[in-house]
Specification:
TIM Barrel, 3 domains, binds iron/sulfur cluster, 11 strands, 18 helices, globular, two-stranded antiparallel ribbon
């Protein structure tokens, strides 16, 4: 039953009004909107709705190119790589599209044990990962202690050549004291995906259990930030609701967080609904590849300072195009199957749906083939305790380019020397040489000093 008590920032009428526009912007209006975004000003929902109506292929090409330019201005060439790690699939919710849903009898249930977490952590480290996102189901009493234990265990895994340096968590709404537990173990960004803001679609897909509480989900980022969490991330599961509505709603949500907490949303994750084991639910609002790319680009143009996160669950051609249209982070290299005992025997139940299971080396190679993206494993900000509004200020002053350029190059070289296959290393070293040539003198000097240290065997070097 739709409610009339939406939080004030989620103005459904304003979204509907913006979406009632049918006309494509003419060339002058399109130029004005793109120029505003290129000046790194967030767009209004009316401007974003206008971009949704662009239909001429030339205009669409301008839109995608501008999104790429905005990404370059704020983040430079970097694409940050993180691995999702599924640690539990027990869940008290019945979300019709999800393999973890309580009523799904086709998957085995599992809590990863601390030794298994260590083994999974080692596997991620051996691929070269430094950033992990913990994923689990949602129980009526969210297992915060379990999550906190997983974070502590993973931060202490060391595999000779490296460690995990940043752990973000994807969770449902928690109580203030539960967020404090996560903070006490040094969790990074707390990701709370609304999946769809379209109330009717949300209620149709989330039948029972904690996640069926649409309102609680909407309030969760506020509660987290009020409870001392410094970084939150928002997310969409495109296909659950009308994507046009969801894009405008997540913009309003991010604007609200910026206005009230000065921190905004650190990231917006943009995943498409995919078939899940044990679910015959089809996306009510399917999003084509072309629409998906447009979503990515509009989101980048609308919220210039926010990290846009895609996943290598998407076809390779598409996530690569996404990296040229505003994406700044990729989820990949999941060790969804961390146990030697797992098999792919027909009929055998597996605990976790296999997802972003590309090997990092392969993803890095794909990025390098474009000869422009710099895969980054940098964790300098968390190492320096830079988060929340401090991080946002740095991004707004375009510090991402001047400080993160050298740091990203150093983190990438650490990957190439310690984890990459010989061919990837060869491509990577060539790209680093080219990137160095293009850097201003001061940044180049800083990057070369860092590279010297990394080449001499030092790790975790940054400025
Ligand atoms: S709460 Fe999350 S894990 Fe559980 S069924 Fe819903 S989407 Fe899946």
């Amino acid at each position: 039953m739709p409610t009339d008590t939406l939080p004030p920032w989620l103005d459904a009428r304003a979204i509907d009004n913006a979406l009632s526009r049918e006309k494509a912007p003419d060339s002058a209006e399109l130029t004005d909107i793109l120029d505003k975004s290129l000046a790194l000003e967030p767009l209004s929902i009316q401007e974003a709705a206008a971009l949704m109506r662009v239909c001429e292929s030339e205009d669409l090409a301008r839109l995608l190119a501008a999104a790429d330019q905005v990404k370059q201005k704020v983040y430079g060439d970097r694409i940050v790589l993180s691995a999702p790690l599924h640690i539990s699939n027990h869940c008290g919710s019945e979300c019709v599209y999800c393999a973890n849903r309580r009523g799904n009898t086709t998957v085995a249930r599992k809590y990863m044990t601390p030794p298994e977490m260590r083994e999974a952590g080692r596997k991620l480290i051996r691929q070269g990962h430094k950033r992990v996102i913990l994923v689990s189901g949602q129980l009526p009493n969210a297992d915060v202690e379990y999550l906190a234990e997983a974070v502590s265990v993973l931060y202490t895994v060391f595999d000779g050549l490296g460690e995990i340096r940043r752990i973000n968590v994807s969770v449902g709404p928690l109580q203030p004291e539960e967020y404090a537990v996560l903070q006490s173990v040094d969790v990074g960004t707390v990701l709370i995906y609304q999946d769809t803001y379209h109330e009717q679609s949300y209620r149709a897909a989330h039948l029972s259990g904690p996640k069926s509480d649409y309102q609680a989900r909407l309030k969760a980022a506020d509660t987290a930030l009020q409870s001392g969490v410094t970084d939150t991330g928002l997310g969409l599961l495109l296909g659950l609701g009308p994507w046009q509505y969801d894009l405008l709603a997540v913009m309003l949500h991010a604007a609200h967080l910026t206005r009230v907490y000065d921190a905004g949303s650190r990231t917006v994750s943009m995943h498409r609904l995919r078939p899940a084991p044990g679910s015959s639910f089809a996306a009510p609002y399917p999003v084509s590849d072309g629409e998906y790319l447009r979503c990515v680009a509009i989101m980048r143009l609308a919220v210039p300072y926010t990290g846009i996160v895609l996943t290598t669950k998407e076809p390779a051609g598409l996530w690569r195009d996404g990296c040229n249209a505003g994406c700044s982070q990729l989820l990949t290299g999941s060790v969804a199957n961390p146990y030697e005992s797992w098999t792919e025997a027909p009929g055998e139940k597996v605990p976790f749906p296999i997802g972003e299971d590309c090997h990092v080396d392969e993803v890095v190679r794909f990025l390098l083939e474009e000869a422009r993206h710099l895969p980054s494993f940098c964790t300098a900000c968390p190492r320096l305790g830079r988060s929340g509004s401090e991080f946002l200020s740095m991004v707004q002053e375009c510090g991402m380019k001047s400080q993160c350029g050298p740091n990203s190059i150093a983190s990438f070289m650490e990957f190439l020397l310690n984890y990459a296959t010989p061919y990837t290393r060869q491509l990577g070293e060539k790209l680093i040489a080219e990137k160095l040539d293009g850097l201003p003198e001061q940044e180049r000097g800083a990057a070369e000093r860092l590279l010297q240290k990394v080449r001499s065997g030092r790790m975790d070097e940054f400025i």
